[in-house]
Amino acid sequence: MKCLPLVLVAVSFLSACSTTQSIHLTQPSFTELSQRVNDAEVVILTDHTLPGHLNLSSAGASAKERVFIDPAAAVFAKQLQKVGLAHTTLNVEEMIPDAKISTREQFDKAYKNYDMLLAQAVKQGDTLISLHFDADIIMSENYKDNEHYVGGVQIILDERAVSPETFKLSYYLIHDYPLFASLNEAGFRIRPGYSDKPRYQNNLTLNITGHSTGGGLLLELAPQDQAIRLYDTPEKTAQALLPSLAILAKGIADFRKTL
């Protein structure tokens, strides 16, 4: 009987640990996500679904683009912090309680909530940056119009949604900062024909974010297969991208001083 209090203490301790862990693993509510956006000046977007989640042409290059985007987004977030910009990162799977997109219903709900947060960020004039990795080289027989696709570093805009600020930020990053030169120095090919201009392409995210008075654009950081050839892993790739992401963060910080 003398051991009973100790047993009860131990059980209570384990119960408390279990509760704490459960709380820690709980998905943020939509209200909490909205508050994160409210507090941010820069929103980092990862856009794609994770490997193992429902993929309705939404998983990106080789159906595993998020595996490369996420470490790069983490590095970019640290660079934004260094230049004093409040920021948050939005991932589509955060938009549903399950944190796993397995059904069409979950897919539609997740992206609907995602788009609502994008619209909120646009309304408050945030700078929205979608980080992506491009396909590498696709041979003509596997690509439309029977042409070879050669991917690479590029900034993409959607011509349906180009605010003056979006155009200016894109121009500044391409011409006034050594962003592309830094990415090229890390070994990443610039997409042929787009070293001095943005590429225009219809995109669901950009059709929202491009309207922002803080600017909204998509940056292809590297061809994904080229990154594997050069750096082996997504984590090593992210470290190789650090100097370029530092330039990107400084460019955004300088730009936002003019808003």
Spell out the key features of this protein:
single chain, 259 residues, alpha/beta, Aminopeptidase, six-stranded mixed beta sheet, two-stranded antiparallel ribbon, 10 helices, 8 strands, 47% helix, 13% strand, disordered N terminus
What does this structure look like?
By secondary structure, the protein is an alpha/beta fold. The protein has one domain: Aminopeptidase, CATH 3.40.630. The chain has ten helices and eight strands. The chain has helices at 4-25, 30-38, 65-82, 104-123, 164-176, 179-185, 206-209, 224-231, 234-240, 242-256, and strands spanning 42-45, 87-90, 127-134, 137-138, 149-150, 154-157, 199-200, 216-223. The protein has a six-stranded mixed beta sheet with strand order 2-1-3-8-6-7, sandwiched between helices. α3 packs parallel to α9 (234-240), α6 (179-185) runs antiparallel to α10 (242-256) and α8 (224-231) packs across α9 (234-240). The chain starts with a helix and ends with a helix. The relative contact order is 0.16.
Topology (SSEs and partners):
Elements (H helix, E strand, L loop, with lengths): L3 H22 L4 H9 L3 E4 L19 H18 L4 E4 L13 H20 L3 E8 L2 E2 L10 E2 L3 E4 L6 H13 L2 H7 L13 E2 L5 H4 L6 E8 H8 L2 H7 L1 H15 L3
Parallel strand pairs: 1-2, 1-3, 3-8, 6-7
Antiparallel strand pairs: 4-5, 6-8
